[in-house]
Amino acid sequence: MRRLALLAVASALALAVAACGGGEEQTPEPVGTPQTSVTIRALRGIRFDLRQMTVAAGQPITVTMDNQDTGVPHDFVVWRDRTMRERIAGTEQCNGPCQETVVVPPLPEGRYFFNCTIHPTEMRGDYIVR
Ligand SMILES: [Cu+2]
Question: What spacing in Å lies between the alpha carbon of 39 and ligand 1's midpoint?
Answer without folding.
Answer: 15
